[in-house]
Predict the structure.
Amino acid sequence: MPMFQPISFTPPDVDPATFGFAPCDGGVCAAEGIKASGTHAGFRDDPNRLDLAVVASDEMCVCAATFTQNRFCAAPVQLSRPRAASGAARAVMLNSGNANASTGEQGLAIAKESAKLLADALGCPEEQILVASTGVIGQQQAIDPYVDGAPAAVAALGADADHAHAAARAVMTTDTVPKEVSLVGELPAADGQPTRTVHVGGFCKGSGMIMPNMATMLSVLTTDAPLTPEAAHAALLAAVRASFNQVTVDSDTSTNDSCFLLATGKAGGEPICEGTEAFDAFAGALRVACETLARKIAADGEGATKMVTVDVLGCKTDEDADTVARTIANSPLVKTAIFGHDANWGRVAAAAGRSGVEFDQYDVDIDFLGVPVLRAGMPVPMDEEDMLRRFEGPEVSIVIDLGQGSASTRIWTCDFTHEYVTINGDYRT
């Protein structure tokens, strides 16, 4: 029997050390000049469950944001999108338990009034407040939780890891764990300036209704790097495209997806612009942070038991690679086979074949969990017992090479389980 080697492929993951960054403590509060809080405001019945988060800068700072492309976008998205376009903000307020989506003019009025309540508590113009919501769609949101909740959230603001953790917990819906990240590193010096120590931190929420389009589920990222608004937007957009937009749990894009970046500039020095070494280093660190959070979303998909990485290579174009990868990652048959610990490469091949991308099946190679299972379109005998042992790990890798060109991509997803059906079947009840 001929021996086949696994497909040789260098994954596009980014190592923070490449840009001079390393993990640190602090979460979203790692950046100097940032405070956060998580409180119970009353969006949820359980008084022990946090449901309102605030992330605030000590003063107005540079901001950038990306939002859902879903045409049923929620009221907070409608309010925050034009405000974020100004390139400046003071704080972001996020609630869980009610999405304030498909709520019409009343919902938009609530979003505006909630922002004003936070602005009054912080002592800043209401235009500097960005808002986001997550929860059930189509239920009118009351202003009452904000009346006491916004001032209480401001009073609870703190700059340590515990406060960051509380904010991350407050935005959870079906998430089973909070998702946080923080990095620290030195930005390269330029024009005789000294190097600057810079932090990047953040959190996100997301477990179901996950396949972002130019955004993420809900995420707040922070840095003390002195960015121009243009540089902040460019770095965030690139990071989101390479991370959050590469995650799919169930192929659904939310009405509320929002991703915010606040840059306080407290690291000092001249503003960082695109086309500089400092920008490249910062953008790389931001991508690392986003990729870290994106992987946590895939691992915490609703009911998931396995995180799945789908690598597609050998495509003619990036678009072809993305199409094939999403077709495989979103295939219920592929995802349920993984839940059943079945290395059913036939489902992977079938998904690629129906993707609409042109290729010759006899050019295709597939690896499952690092084991060659298809070469030149023909099956390779596998040791089923060995494969079952490999399935005992928390992650599953699928690599498919179409043999058509040099374009490639990576998508993160998870398996489909009985629990996914239970969670979503019971979501409103």
In short: The chain has two domains: 21-299, 307-425. The first helix runs from residue 75 to 84.
